[in-house]
Amino acid sequence: MGFARGWIDTIMRCLESVSYSVVVNGHVGERFHPVRGLCQGDPLSPFLFLLCGEGLSCLLRLAAEGGGLRGVKASRSGPQISHLLFADDCILFSEATSRGATTLRDILKEYRICSGQCVNFEKSTVFFSKNTTEEAKAAVIEILGVRSSNNPERYLGLPNMDGLCWRVGRGTGISIWDDYWIPGISPGEWPNRDDNEIKLVADLIKIPLAEIPHEDFQVWKGELSGDFSVMSAYKLLQESSFDPNFLIQADIKDFYNKLWNLQLPSKIAITIWRISWNYLLTLVNLKYKRVTRNVACPRCGREEEDITHIFRQCPVTVEVWHLSDLSWIIDSTIQGFWEWLTWVFKMSTTEQCKRICCGMWFLWRSRNILIHERKSKTGRELSHKVKQYIAELEGLEEKKSTSNMNCCHRHRKPLNGVTITFDAAFNKRTFKSASGVVVWGRSGRLSATKTVLHTNVPSPFASEALAGLQATRLGITMNLPSVTVMGDSRTIIKKCQSMEKDKSVIGAIIHDIQSKKICFQNIRFKFINRTDNLLAHKIAREALKKEEETYLVLVNEDSSLYPEGRWRREPD
Predict the structure, then answer these.
(1) In angstroms, what CA-CA distances link 105 with 56, 63, 109, 144, 152?
(2) What confidence tier does 333 reach under pLDDT thresholds 50, 70, 90?
(3) Which of 29, 135, 329, 540 could share a disulfide with 436, CB 3.0–4.6 Å?
(4) In which element (H, E) is residue 83 found?
């Protein structure tokens, strides 16, 4: 590697300054001096790893520069990565060809001759991309003499993959002690006798399991979908000083459940969601992106424009909250914006939350109008607009409610074929839920209803998925060859429509729904508005309240519901 002889002698004297002895059956053997290592914890030890690793790194880099070794790129314009080095492990990247494998083998052989360090092939594995042919895989494995792996993250020599967790299928691929598979409990953090073991058991039995077992698989816990995204990883790194449960799912559920249940227009709800994650293009955020240098508030010009200033400190904002009878929200001593926002939602009534959300939306909208159209609004004008808008929303809700009360639940608009609507009711205190399922004939006439109770349901999200599963089961029970299943949860419907594996926390339930599609000649899933799903919502709520299950078929049901010669089965 080109080091001076005197420098090498100095390093070797450091190695020979220590001595070892081996204890055999309690007897200490003779002491001896090492020639290739140091005691664990020696300050020089990590530098020896770096020095030895630099030799391998140089060989790989020379091969890549000469075109003999091709690494991988994280992006089209990014650099090629041929290797990643750790303390005593390394990850090598190459094209899956005989040429690439031969080049790697020769480099490792040369490194072994020069350094004396040999590759442990028993612990080494090779991982191929999805588009690699079986012939190419076999050739590479034969040349390198290592075994193939479809699950590289299970190799114990690799670093831990923060952010990954397991979805339980059969459970055979999961280490109970070492893997993250119980929501909210990290590996190795099993409770002691003094801990609340009942809570642990409750967390265990709330994990959804599929009726038809499937393989265990890993997902990214930074996204509810289970799929990795750069944005969620960036947020985890950016906020690494916080509790990961705060950043992922645990403590934010109450806030978002309350937000989505306010029944606000999508433009307002989505804006509040963007505010909560600091995704608004404030001048401070634009400065971080190197778009602008001026960060002074365009309204007052006194302070930097970030989300805290826009929604808590700006004089116009203060005036809006005072005139809206919400001055108490700016008197809080809470510093962090997220902590302040969740505290405001927690302390506010539903009506106050609506005013706060509408106020924030008008503040942000008026700020954009000021920048792009040079039109400004006073706090009094904005407060008046907020009150006027709230009144319009309440009038619209009252109109919808009156219209829904006047409609007959026994009829609906005729559709092409039999339809099944579903909804769920959830008790967050007892973790119980009820599924309400309604069958409508081709003429739009009510034909059957069914309610099912569930226990140990982890979330309202899971209760909606269970209701969708019950709707599918009822269609099978009634021998319906063709059916349209409809619900008011857009996310659940999209998951049922998708042909891809669902990686979310309710993936097991979605797996069961998708596996039952083969029982129908034709089955479709369709989203409907809450106002078109009132009967399913009502019977689910009543079933949860009374804690009783029902299965009712109307005597004057639609004669076209069942094909000739086919009869209803008893419910499972």
Answers:
(1) 12, 12, 6, 6, 20
(2) confident
(3) 540
(4) strand 83-85
Give the pLDDT band of residue 555 (cuts 50, 70, 90).
Answer: low
pLDDT bin (cut points 50, 70, 90) of residue 201 is: low
Cα separation, 269 vs 287, whole angstroms: 26
- CA 86 from chain centre, in angstroms, equals 28
- Contact between 180 and 165 under an 8 Å Cβ cutoff? The reply is yes
Cα 562 to Cα 35, 293, 327, 416, 468, distances in angstroms:
85, 70, 62, 15, 21
Query: What does the alpha-carbon distance between residue 222 and residue 236 come to, in Å, rounded to a whole number?
Result: 8
pTM: 0.48
- Spacing of C-alpha 545 from chain mean position: 32
Instruction: Count the residues in the chain.
Output: 572
DSSP 35-68: SS---TT-TTHHHHHHHHHHHHHHHHHHHHHTTS
Placement of tokens 């404030």 in the chain = 282
**DSSP letter, residue 478:** T
The two tokens of residue 570 are 């008893």
Cα–Cα distance, 60 to 64 (Å, whole number): 6
Residue 336 tokens, joined: 């962090």
As a whole number of angstroms, the distance between CA 154 and CA 549 comes to 45
Q: How confident is the model at residue 540 (pLDDT cuts 50, 70, 90)?
A: very high
Using alpha carbons, list the distances in angstroms from residue 454 to 23, 199, 386, 424, 450.
61, 19, 41, 10, 13
The conformation of residue 203, written as its DSSP 8-state character, comes to H
- CB atoms closer than 10 angstroms to residue 196: 9
Task: Give tens-digit pLDDT for 83-142.
Answer: 888 766 788 888 888 888 899 899 988 888 887 778 887 778 888 887 888 888 889 888
Residue 425: how many other CB atoms lie within 10 Å? 23
SS3 427: strand
Write the Ramachandran bin of 463: left for phi over 0, alpha for psi from -120 to 50, otherwise beta.
alpha
CATH number, span 418-553 = 3.30.420.10
Quickly count helices (H) and strands (E) in the chain.
19, 16
Residue with tokens 């020095």: 51
Q: Are 443 and 452 in contact (CB under 8 A)?
A: no
Calpha distance 226→220 (Å, rounded): 5
C-alpha–C-alpha distance, residues 368 and 193, integer Å:
57
Domains of the chain: which residue ranges? 68-154, 166-247, 271-405, 418-553
Residue 437 parent element (H or E): strand 432-440
Task: Give the CA dihedral 473, 479, 481, 487, nearest 10 degrees.
Answer: -30
Provide the pLDDT confidence category of residue 565 given band limits of 50, 70 and 90. Answer: very low
With a CB cutoff of 8 Å and minimum separation 6, the contacts of 54 are 1
- 241-271 per-position pLDDT tens digit: 444 444 445 457 778 888 988 888 999 999 9
Helix (H, G, I), strand (E, B) or coil at 420: strand
Q: What is the dihedral of CA 395, 401, 405, 407, to 10 degrees?
A: 90
Give the tokens for residue 178: 């070492």
At CA 123, angle to CA 119 and CA 127, rounded to 5? 95
